[in-house]
Amino acid sequence: MRDEYDVIVVGAGPAGSIAAQHAAAQCDVLLVEKRQAIGEPIRCAEGVPLWQSPIFPKSFSEYVQPDPNWIASEVRRIRATSPDGTTIEVSSETFGVDGPLAFIIERKLFDRQLAKDAARAGADIMVRTRASGLIIDENVVKGVRANRLGDEFELTAKVVIAADGLESQVGRWGGINTSLEAKDIASCAQYYAENVDVSQETVDLYYGSNIGGGYAWVFPKGDKTANVGLAVPGSRCGAKRPIDYLDEFAAKRFPSAQPIGLILGGIAISNELRTIVRNGLMLVGDAAHHTDPLTGGGIVPALESGTIAGKVASKAVRKNDPSERVLREYQTEYNHSFGTMRRLRYSCKELAVSLSDEEINRVMRVLNGIQPGELSLKSITMRFLRKDPRLLLKARQLV
Ligand SMILES: Cc1cc2nc3c(=O)[nH]c(=O)nc-3n(C[C@H](O)[C@H](O)[C@H](O)COP(=O)(O)OP(=O)(O)OC[C@H]3O[C@@H](n4cnc5c(N)ncnc54)[C@H](O)[C@@H]3O)c2cc1C
User: How does the average pLDDT of the chain come out, rounded?
Assistant: First the structure.
């Protein structure tokens, strides 16, 4: 077994595998994953957007060639429902998109595909190998300590990429505070369920206090199966657990549904981390708090940050200078592509979780019937000004 690499990536989720793939084009790369099989267990609703928007400036398909083997369904319509049943619906036509708006993917197969792509690009992969610490010398990260089936060993590298997910330990070992305030974590519960009577082309979203004050989703996965889940923002968590809300929601909306699997997990709905690089260390994906705070979508941001980080790490290795100054190019480039409007989206999340049921109903009534040409921030603001200016006053307190 080799113990010296140019780049070591910790964590084989989407961010880590794509970083390893891009770094491996010109460097010796090792990807370590603590689980015994990449892609399992899944903690995801598996939705990825295909259209560009201020939230996701690039489409999922810019990073990876879509493969029918891991596409469960093609979404052409998204419908949001308020507590009083008011709905807003957008479709491919609304956005002028010639094709689906989103895919619901098979995450297990997708994550494995990305890991295979990394291996084909030349990366070594070790599964069932847990990073247990960082080797740090004079304030420079020089590698990782790892444990595989009880054996402890050291692996050195010029750059370590921390792709170890929410509240990254690798980041903390490197001196970056990756912990989250309770209000900036959404607690989720999701069933992978059978006998769910939904259109296979429609994603449904529900809002209101009866589902915990965040949102519930129904993501179709073909042939009457669907991911049915919900996210409760930390600021709204009380004695009732997300699974309790989910059981009530599922019983009411889909009385015939039967669970095939249950997932519990957390999503960062936080502001960005100020620092995501140190000498010899880069944080990517969930480890860098890159999940979109408004939607909880983290796959596309993980692919973007992993892609940039892999390329910048490789450049730093070739220059023989993995200093924070050189690695910062990654943070600058990421901020340029996905960082814009992030503060605004965080404020929108804060506003959204503070709304009462009646206010959600009013927001939906204002947005109901919105036309494709009105989908800019300016036009939406004007619409609120015309139809319900008091809601704008509420927004002003937070933004
Ligand atoms: C319930 C739920 C639903 C979601 N739904 C969606 C959705 O529909 N669409 C969307 O875009 N996003 C969704 N997300 C968010 C999305 O899953 C994440 O943003 C995404 O997985 C981030 O990818 P990542 O590579 O950064 O981290 P992860 O996918 O979390 O991968 C981190 C990897 O690091 C490994 N690891 C951790 N520590 C170590 C260690 N010490 N040593 C070695 N390996 C380690 C882990 O085992 C894991 O494989 C959802 C999240 C949840 C919880």
Answer: 94
Predicted local distance difference test score (pLDDT) of residue 82: 96
Which of 99-108, 332-341, 386-395 ranks highest by mean pLDDT?
Answer: 99-108
pLDDT one-digit tens code per residue, 59-103: 899 999 999 999 999 999 999 999 999 999 989 888 778 899 999
Instruction: Specify the fold of 4-43+109-180+272-340.
Output: FAD/NAD(P)-binding domain (3.50.50)
Tell which atom from ligand 1 comes closest to the C-alpha of 190.
1
Closest residue to atom 30 of ligand 1, CA basis? 165
Atom 29 (ligand 1): residue with closest C-alpha?
Answer: 13
Whether omega for the bond prior to residue 242 falls within 30 degrees of 0, making it cis, is no
Q: Where are the domains of the chain?
A: 4-43+109-180+272-340, 182-268, 343-398
Q: How far apart (Å, rounded) are the C-alpha atoms in residues 294 and 301?
A: 13
Asked if pLDDT for residue 124 goes beyond 90, the answer is: yes
Cα(75) to ligand 1 centroid in Å equals 22
- Among protein residues, the one with the nearest Cα to ligand 1's atom 39 is 164
* Ligand 1 near 333 CB (within 6 A): no
Residue 133 above 70 pLDDT? Answer: yes
**CATH 3.40.50.1000 is held by the domain 182-268:** no
CA of 302 to the centre of ligand 1 (A): 9
CA of 46 to the centre of ligand 1 (A): 11
pLDDT value for 173: 98
Quote the pLDDT of residue 397: 64
